[in-house]
Amino acid sequence: MTLFSYKKFICFSLPLLVLFLNPIVAEQLLTKSEILRKANECFKDLQYKVCSNLLLEIEKIQLVESEQKNYKCQASILGLQTELIEAYYFRKLKKNKNGMMLPYVNKNC
Known about the structure:
Layout: H1 3-21, H2 23-26, H3 32-45, H4 48-67, H5 71-89, H6 102-108
């Protein structure tokens, strides 16, 4: 391999390596339909494991949207996170758990 082709290889492979080693990008993120489906399940059943895993997944997506400067989507996802936390932790106080932010996540993401 010549020096030029070696440098060319490094120039093209280094950005890809950095991109794939980024933990947020390297993981498979939930799709919008999966988020909406799981959020509906969480509002209905309020199972701790389902809700807590969904909150962690949504947090990752929220960070990606922030890095991409997609602030409408990020704000919608933050609103959904707030509703999920409120529905789970305050379930005895608030009986009406409907997921008001779901249409905004659907529209903005």
